[in-house]
UniProtKB/TrEMBL annotation:
Alphabetical list of Pfam families matching this protein: Omp85, POTRA, TOBE_2
Classification via Gene3D superfamilies: membrane protein fhac, membrane protein fhac: a member of the omp85/tpsb transporter family
Record-linked InterPro entries: Bac_surfAg_D15, BamA/TamA_POTRA, D15-like, Transp-assoc_OB_typ2
Region (Disordered): 294-321
Domain POTRA: 237-289
Protein name per its UniProtKB record: Bacterial surface antigen (D15) domain-containing protein
UniProt keywords, alphabetically: Membrane, Transmembrane, Transmembrane beta strand
Organism: Parasaccharibacter apium
Lineage: Bacteria, Pseudomonadati, Pseudomonadota, Alphaproteobacteria, Acetobacterales
Leader sequence residues: none
Cellular localization per UniProt: Membrane
Domain Transport-associated OB type: from-to ranges: 62-119
Length: 671
């Protein structure tokens, strides 16, 4: 054993502790994926800037990288390739990474001397996939009662014998990999998930697929892939148990559920049912679990041991072919909070400020009914306002009204608006039924009764208006939630509202409107990341048939201006004006369009730039009137409840007594 002297100890200590900075250079190879894989696998790369070590530790890091980087080669099928590492120091001195004196070479590097580590590889020939062998156990595919192929009850300790299984055409296609394909590890490992998913979607709910095992054949530059698989019995959904329901009625959950007993067991269908129940807003969590035991079908005799069979509902309907048993399903619910108190604030220079509060009661009667009570003060300043107003309502919504996915909405509302165009005090009673129609389409029809008092240009009038609003919507943006800004697709809304004014010159009129918007993601051109740069466009058209402007109640006429139509002009500030004042008369036709560019920035910020244009006319056909154009921009801050929006807009051709600019603050994109 060597004996260290006092003079030698500090030298060794210094060699161990003295950090040796270095730079790693990746030598590119023909396969870019391998080059990227080498950089990702190498500790020399990942630790060079954060964890400097001494010469001996660095030598160990270099040698450890051989095995790490070799894995990157093999993951792409280059089993015959090898890794090359060399170390270069000042004066052109180099040494191989496997050299016995590597540590001594690194220890000889003087302070300030540059050290460069070159990391490369020789790929060789890429191996391909040979045979794909699926093996199972003796008795695979046995019945639900747990019997072996000979009909005798299988013992738990009976040794299993592997056998090569023949796959159906669908099972073979689900592998996603064919013989002769490059032996890329990612593709080989994906077989397990693909095959298991296919089996479970075919009803083999208890199937099991093990991770693939590669058998290397260097002589023929191939690997054979062996996978152990067990299908198990083909199953249908058995009795469903609902646990954790306290205030929500079980009959509502079962009627809402997208499952029925006797339906083929499919994980995707079960997950969709779970997500659908969660979307009601009634539950904090919904957990789906499989039952402990497979039940025999109603037509089968009970298995030994007194095992119960599936329920009577299943016996009354035809079952999918080849089914061997029924798997019970358990749902565990955790009900969410029933009450919610929220605030609503906003501001724009034309409509001024608004502030209000709303109270929501979920699950009022035990079947998902919602009661909302809201009160809001409006007209807190603003160039289009003459005083303080209010908006208060009580709203009752019943989901799954008469049939699934059809909702009933009833509302009682009181409104007071002191606009420059008119002053209104109104009381409304509304009812509406809404339901999905086809894919991406929904429709609604309702009834509205409105009693109002309006004063315009010094004249007072009472109106009692009955209307039947009919609406058809198409939304092809496929957003995950309504508050999420759209980045692609189309949205179209069509509305027709036959109406009759029963007081003050009784008249029948039909307001009609259409709004369409589309969104183009510049990522489709390869210019940006998905969702970061979007061009949004909108067009709006409105027309009223059956009555002239002055025969219509002022609040039923068409107006433009403000954040909902043409920014840069105050609310109702576009269209015919009363004499030389800034009071808007309104019209019987309106058209407007918008082009907006939206750019996401880091840290949840974003920018927007837009141009709006439109016109209002006393003629019944759109396309007439004085065209007004506004432009501007704004900032966005994206939150979990939608983007907070701040926009500033200016008119290009300002009307008489029009505002010079407008400021808008709100939640969510304008369209």
């Amino acid at each position: 054993m060597p004996v260290w002297g006092e003079d030698s100890m500090p030298v060794v200590h210094e060699l161990v502790r003295h950090a040796l900075p270095y730079t790693t250079k990746i030598e590119p190879v023909d396969d870019k994926a391998v080059t990227d894989g080498m950089a990702a696998a190498s500790q020399l790369v990942s630790l060079q800037a954060t964890r400097s070590v001494g010469p001996y530790a660095l030598a160990g890091r270099i040698r450890a990288d051989y095995e790490r980087v070799q894995g990157a080669l093999q993951s792409r099928g280059y089993y015959g390739g090898h890794v090359r590492i060399s170390v270069e120091a000042g004066g052109g001195r180099t040494v191989d990474g496997r050299a016995p004196d590597l540590a001594g070479f690194l220890a000889s590097v003087q302070p300030g001397e540059a050290v460069t580590i070159h990391l490369g590889a020789v790929l060789g020939e890429q191996f391909t996939v040979g045979r794909i062998i699926i093996v199972g156990e003796d008795g695979d595919g046995q019945g639900a009662a747990g019997k072996a192929a000979d009909g005798k009850q299988e013992k738990a300790d009976q040794p299993s014998v592997r056998q090569v299984l023949s796959l159906s055409e669908g099972e073979r296609s689900s592998l996603g990999l064919k013989e002769g394909a490059p032996a890329v590890a990612e593709d080989v490992l994906a077989i397990q998930g693909r095959l298991l998913t296919y089996l479970q979607e075919e009803g083999y709910g208890l199937s099991d697929v093990q991770a693939p095992q590669a058998i290397l054949h260097p002589e023929r530059k191939q690997i054979d892939v062996q996978i152990r698989m067990k299908r198990g019995p083909k199953l249908v959904i058995g009795p469903m148990t609902l646990k954790g329901l306290e205030r929500v009625k079980p009959d509502y959950v079962r009627r809402r559920m997208l499952l029925r007993e006797g339906q083929l067991y499919q994980p995707s269908v079960l997950e969709q049912a779970r997500l659908d129940l969660g979307s009601t807003g009634l539950f904090a969590s919904v957990i789906q679990k499989n039952g402990d035991k497979v039940l025999p079908l109603p037509s089968q005799k009970p298995a030994p041991g007194g095992k119960k069979s599936a329920g009577k509902k299943m016996a009354e309907q035809p079952l999918p072919p080849g089914v061997e048993g029924a798997l019970p399903i358990d749902f565990d619910f955790s009900e969410g909070k029933r009450h919610r108190l929220t605030g609503d604030v906003g501001y724009s220079t034309d409509l001024g400020g608004r502030a209000g509060v709303s109270w929501l009661h979920r699950n009022l009667l035990g079947r998902g009914e919602q009661l909302r009570v809201a009160a809001m003060a409006t007209g807190l300043g603003g160039t289009a306002q003459q005083g303080l107003g209010y908006d208060g309502y009580v709203d009752f919504m019943k989901p799954d009204f008469l049939q699934r996915s059809q909702s009933l909405d009833l509302r009682i509302e009181a409104i007071r608006q002191l606009l420059y165009s008119y002053r209104q005090t109104a009381f409304l009673v509304q009812g509406r039924v809404e339901r999905p129609l086809w894919k991406d389409f929904s429709g609604s029809v309702g009834m509205t009764l409105e009693q109002e008092h309006i004063r315009q240009f010094g004249r007072k009038a009472e109106y009692f208006i009955a209307s039947v609003p009919i609406k058809l919507d198409y939304d092809g943006t496929h957003r995950s939630s309504p508050i999420e800004p759209a980045t692609h697709g189309f949205r179209v809304s069509l509305g027709v509202t036959p109406s009759v004014s029963l007081e003050h010159k009784t008249s029948f009129f039909i307001p009609m409107n259409m709004q369409a918007s589309t969104y183009f993601d510049l990522a489709r051109l390869g210019l940006t990341r998905p969702g970061s740069s979007v061009i949004a466009m909108r067009v709006m058209i409105g027309s009223i048939q059956g009555a002239s402007t002055w025969n219509l109640p002022p609040d039923q006429r068409l107006y433009a201006g403000g954040p909902g139509s043409i920014r840069g002009f105050r609310y109702q500030g576009v269209g015919p004006q009363y004499g030389t004042t800034k009071y808007a008369i309104g019209g019987t036709s309106m058209d407007a369009g918008t082009v907006e560019f939206r750019q996401r920035l880091p840290k949840n910020f974003g920018l927007a730039a837009f141009v709006d244009a439109g016109q209002v006319s006393g003629k019944s056909m759109p396309g007439h009137g004085r065209l007004r154009v506004g432009c501007g921009g704004g900032v966005r801050y994206f939150t979990p409840i939608g983007p907070v929006r701040v926009d500033v807009a200016m008119p290009i051709n300002r009307p008489n007594r029009g505002d010079k600019w407008e400021l808008y603050l709100g939640l969510g994109e304008t369209f």
